[in-house]
Amino acid sequence: MKKLSLKGLAEYMTATDSHKRKMLRDYKYPSVEALAKITYYREARDRIAAFHSGGHDTGWLLDAAADLDVLVQSSDGTRKTRFKYNARALRGYAKHFGKKKFKVLGETTYGLHFDDVLITVHPDLHVEEKGKEKLIKLEFGLKEPDSRKVKIINQCMLEAVLRDRLDIASSGVLYFDVPRGRIHTGARIGSRMTNDIDAACKNISAIWDNI
Predict the structure, then answer these.
(1) Rounded to whole angstroms, how far apart are CA atoms 170 and 185?
(2) Packed helices 58-73 and 77-97: angle between N→C axes, nearest 10 degrees
(3) Do residues 49 and 126 lie in contact, with contact meaning Cβ atoms separated by under 8 Å?
(4) Distance between CA atoms of 72 and 66, rounded to whole angstroms?
(5) How far apart are CA 69 and CA 60, in angstroms?
(6) Contacts for 9 with CB less than 8 Å, ≥ 6 apart
(7) Which of 66, 79, 115, 166 measures 20 to 30 Å from 44, CA to CA?
(8) What does the alpha-carbon distance between residue 186 and residue 132 come to, in Å, rounded to a whole number?
């Protein structure tokens, strides 16, 4: 089975042809650094989920960010930088989305198959808002996300919803760009993007064994 993360697929589909094979090689033979990158914002994600689960106000998030500031002062190297960025992420979420009232539902991961390629779809938040179930992907990077990557991620989340026959509307599939305070929607049933994803996975399948 050829396996990529959702973000990995989005990166592959937006990469230049000269970089695609290298990217697939990195996913086929992941390094320690690559695995660490996946969990880089785990402190921010965990605390945001706890923030909504506990029904806290934004001050709770800011206190959590301050706790990470303490770890910044007592750490060095990559750990110091990671704690600094996670604290920044919490402050950004408090600023832009701190007034959101979510009921946190159970964590969920979907396996999205396109032929023999498996895309792991793991929303950062699985919540209910005003009686409507939603899946949310969180973006914490300083650089504004590529619009095509956002569309790929949202479309894959919607495909996972459709295949599992979940009661989630396309408008409930969301991408939160935390630093800029933007919410991206736009995934659609029968979208051309789904065909593009299928074609990309066929290409991945064709070259995977020879990497």
Answers:
(1) 8
(2) 170
(3) no
(4) 10
(5) 14
(6) 119, 152, 156, 197, 200, 201
(7) 166
(8) 17
Tokens of 69: 């500031």
The residue among 40, 8, 38, 5 whose CA lies nearest residue 23 is: 8
Burial 199-208 (b: 16+ CB within 10 A, else e): ebbeebeeeb
- Given the DSSP bridges, would you call strands 173-177 and 132-139 parallel, antiparallel or unpaired? parallel
Q: What is the pLDDT of residues 88-124, one digit of tens each?
A: 999 999 999 999 999 999 889 999 999 899 999 999 9
Structure tokens at 130: 């005003």
Task: Say what the pLDDT of residue 167 is.
Answer: 84
Specify the long-range contacts of residues 126-130, CB closer than 8 Å, at least 24 apart: 127/52, 127/102, 127/103, 128/102, 128/103, 129/100, 129/101, 129/102, 129/103
Residue 84, CA distances (Å) to 56, 168, 177 in order: 22, 35, 18
Beta strands across the sheet bearing 103-104: 103-104, 125-129, 132-139, 173-177, 182-184
Pairing of strands 125-129, 110-114: unpaired
Q: Which two tokens stand for residue 111?
A: 């396996």
Maximum Cα–Cα distance across the chain: 52
- What amino acid is encoded at 64 in this protein? A
Indicate the average pLDDT of the chain: 94
